[in-house]
Structure formats: structure tokens, C-alpha cells
Write a structure and sequence with these properties.
The protein has 2 domains: 5-52, RNA polymerase II/Efflux pump adaptor protein, barrel-sandwich hybrid domain (OB fold (Dihydrolipoamide Acetyltransferase, E2P)), CATH 2.40.50; 55-184, Beta Barrel (OB fold (Dihydrolipoamide Acetyltransferase, E2P)). The protein is built from no helices and 16 strands. The chain has strands spanning 5-6, 11-14, 19-20, 24-27, 30-33, 37-42, 47-52, 65-73, 77-85, 97-101, 122-129, 134-137, 144-147, 157-160, 163-166, 172-173. It has a 5-stranded mixed β-barrel with strand order 8-9-10-12-11. It is globular. The protein binds zinc ion. Zinc ion binds at residues 150, 152-153, 155, 166, 168-169, 171.
Amino acid sequence: MDNKIVLPGEQVSTSEELLPGDGTFEENGIIRASRLGTYFVDDKHKKVIVKPLTSIPIEIKKGNIVLAIVNSVRSNMVIADVIHVIGKKRAISGDTNGTLRVSEISSGYVKDPATEFAPGDIIRAKVTQVKPSIQLATKDRDLGVIKSMCSKCRHSLIRKGNMLECENCGNKEKRRYASDYGLIDPNKL
Ligand SMILES: [Zn+2]
């Protein structure tokens, strides 16, 4: 599994096997990635590490398809932190704080962003503006949530019909998910 790229929130090991190292955190015995990066095991110290995707950083451009983590969901917009430009294995420089307005979420009418996204969701979005602020849109079918965790127990939500369901507790949640939700290979991002 060395050098595999993992998403934030993705399970990388268990606390029985390894210790949580840089770029990871432990939750209920499960070690998860805390950033998008490359999986690596430090055999000497029995630690799992997620190294950042570094090299020369890039700036976000209009038209880029990006991954972002939802920070907060308000009545008329979603605030998300851009973490990755699809197709570029480089870190992002400069401002990463993006705004997704309610009218840009779906091609259909959305009344309340809280019915579509939740804090911690990883979304794939299109950059529609960079200056003076980063604006995002998720209107296309391949845009929207690509990874989401249960609001009750933090296990992964899997797709069941047109809803997402917790693999652990069975809790059902609604999201504006991307058409390939659950089928994404992080190495191809
Ligand atoms: Zn659950």
C-alpha cells in the first residue's frame, strides 16, 4: 500500500497495527488520514504517516476542478477549504477558502444547503472565480460530495439508492453526491 494516495478521513490503519503519525489521527481505534497525501509506513517506529503532496505549489485557477472539505453550511452558502486541484500532484499556495452559493449547488432548486452538504464532506467542485474570492459550483452531475461520514458515528456513508447510508449504524443521510460517489480511486485524482 506504500505510496498510495489517500483522502482525508480515509482509514489507513488501526491502532492495533500501528501508531498514528504525522498527517493522521486516531478515532475509536481506527487511524485515518487528516490530509490528502501519500500513505507511508515507518517500520522502525511502527507508525503510519500521510505525507503531503508537495513540490512546487500551484495557484488555483478559474475552471479548475478541485477537491474541497466543507467547513460550514449556512442558510445561503457553503464554506469549503480547497485541498487539491484534480490532476495536479502539487500543494496549493495562497488562499484556499472557497464559497459555494446556494444557487450554484445544483441545476435544480435548492432551498437550504444543509439538505445537500454537511461539515467534513469532501466535495469535487468547479472553480468559477478566483478573485477577489474563490467561488465554487457543483451543478454538473460529476460534481458534489465524493466522501462523507455519518454525522452520528463518523463511519463512512455508502450509497443506497438515492440516499447515503452508514455502514456501521445504518443512519440514512441525504447529500448532493457526485455521480461516481463510492467508486473513486484516490490515485487518479
Ligand atoms: Zn453511523
